[in-house]
Amino acid sequence: MATSFHSREGDASAPHLFQRVRFDLKRRWATVVRREALGGDLLRLTFGGSDLADFQSAAFDEHVKLFVPADTTPIRAASPEQLVGRHYTPRHYDAARGELAIDFYLHEAGVLTTWARQAQPGAELIIGGPKGALVPPEDFDWYLLAGDETALPAIARRLEQLAASVRVQVVAEVARPGLEIALPTAAAADIRWVYRETEADALVQALEQLKLPAGEGYAWIAGEATQARAARQALLAKGLPRDWVKAAGYWKLGESDQHVKVED
Q: Does the pTM exceed 0.90?
């Protein structure tokens, strides 16, 4: 593992020092050991296996790539060309047990979604990565987390990490009322749910109307790529520095296997 450091000025003495963490890329065999419905449209699968003994994940929005066969071929017999991979957030890693939890948003279609719906203890897959990420510092005056269902695992992980004295605003979009999930945190959190059933651009509109706290803040956004870009622009229009607004497209309408950094 190698690390480097980055701030918006490129000066290691500047405030708000980001840590770049890199891991050697590795593919690991893993086996489902538990499944748990989380409410809404989210399912948690917990994986075990000796390959996970050295697993590491440094950032709340880091991602791994899960590989399963595109057809009914048993995974141990599948060729690399028969495997389909998709990106997911490592929700929690228990080093003592060597277990990794990953939350799946069970949307309408997709090879990995179908696999997760059917996966029972004993089912196998391959986990690639993570390769590393940029870890935000803890010295901002406040934080903002925003996104749709695909962002909820990262949002939930970040909320669990934040200390009691930290101010954080959350804008979370789901399809309709009743699909919210628990987001426990010790932080001073203001959590707002918005619904696509009411307004297709609910997340962006909520961010446009949001009153930001005083002081310096770091904003993180993820979801559908076009919406994530619009959400980033809405926050930049409020005067947030570009380097303090991170946006990612976790998926793109009409396309598959999209996971991209959203920039201007």
A: yes
